[in-house]
TrEMBL record:
This is Glycine/D-amino acid oxidase-like deaminating enzyme. PANTHER family: PUTATIBE OXIDOREDUCTASE (PTHR13847:SF201), SARCOSINE DEHYDROGENASE-RELATED (PTHR13847). InterPro entries: FAD-dep_OxRdtase, FAD/NAD-bd_sf. Transmembrane segments: none annotated. The lineage of its organism: Bacteria, Bacillati, Bacillota, Bacilli, Bacillales. Gene3D superfamilies: D-Amino Acid Oxidase, subunit A, domain 2, FAD/NAD(P)-binding domain. Residues 2-243 form the FAD dependent oxidoreductase domain. SUPFAM superfamilies: FAD/NAD(P)-binding domain.
Length: 252
């Protein structure tokens, strides 16, 4: 059940970076949660990217603008270089496939200069809207009923199932309900430490792209950070710049 058109919420504005290295570094995760949980956390992210590549994509078809990429995580300032060195050593210790780039290596591979960078292997890019449509098409052909432009306005639960009341006056029965609603989760559950901000994503016209080694995904240590990638038709997608925005504006 989707209250909008399929994929027309934040999915259509997603930059489509599939990465196992994420906002919380492995080093920080170990300090916060302990070694076993932190390494498992990163391993599950890595496994998820692998499953998309090896199991899901072959099943749902081509034309999704999917491509395996390495990613460049650069030090925004000289002060961040030590952090990247430590993170590189931690990732290598637990057998994650990474390389360390010096300033000279970055200058040789790209048209900019940064103090240092971490290069992670076997990540990916994808067109999120095409991917979502392909997943729903695959599910529908397998017998899943898909309800588009159908908002849930109420629900009751019996001993056997749920009765979900929709905005267009129907009742749908389901044994289980799984909420996958991203930033709109605050309407369904109370999360005291969740704060909504606005992030931006822009796309260029097709360009003559040069001096961009292996079309790597690029992001940085600064917070909020900038992320950049190329597309199959030689555009550049760039995003970031988190800032406070009125919640009504986000949902309108």
């Amino acid at each position: 059940m989707e209250k909008r058109k399929i994929g027309k919420g934040s999915t259509s504005a997603n930059a489509g970076l599939l990465q196992y290295i994420n906002d919380r570094s492995l080093t920080a995760a170990i300090h916060r949660f302990g070694e076993d949980k932190a390494v498992r956390h990163y391993s599950l992210f890595q496994k998820a990217v692998q499953i998309v590549r090896e199991e899901i994509i072959p099943k749902i078809g081509t034309g999704l603008d999917y491509c395996t990429r390495n990613s460049l995580y650069f030090a925004s300032t000289k002060a961040d270089e030590d952090f990247l060195i430590k993170e590189y050593q931690t990732l290598k210790q637990y057998k994650f496939p990474v390389e360390f780039y010096t300033r000279e290596m970055i200058q040789k591979a790209f048209s900019f200069s940064k103090p240092a960078a971490l290069v992670s292997k076997s990540e990916a890019e994808i067109n999120p809207l095409k991917y979502t449509h392909a997943l729903f098409k695959f599910a529908a052909e397998a017998g899943v009923k898909v309800y588009e432009e159908t908002e849930i306005i109420g629900k009751t639960r019996s001993s056997e199932d749920y009765h979900v009341v929709t905005s267009n006056g129907h009742t749908i029965r389901a044994k289980y309900l799984v909420y996958s609603i991203g930033y709109e989760a605050s309407h369904q559950i109370s999360v005291t430490n969740a704060f909504l901000t606005t992030s931006y994503c822009i796309v260029t016209n097709p360009l003559n792209i040069k001096n961009w080694k292996d079309r790597m995904l690029i992001w940085e240590t600064a917070r909020p950070y900038l992320y950049v990638r190329t597309t199959q038709d030689n555009r550049i997608i760039a995003g970031g710049l988190d800032e406070d925005t009125d919640l009504k504006d986000c949902l309108s």
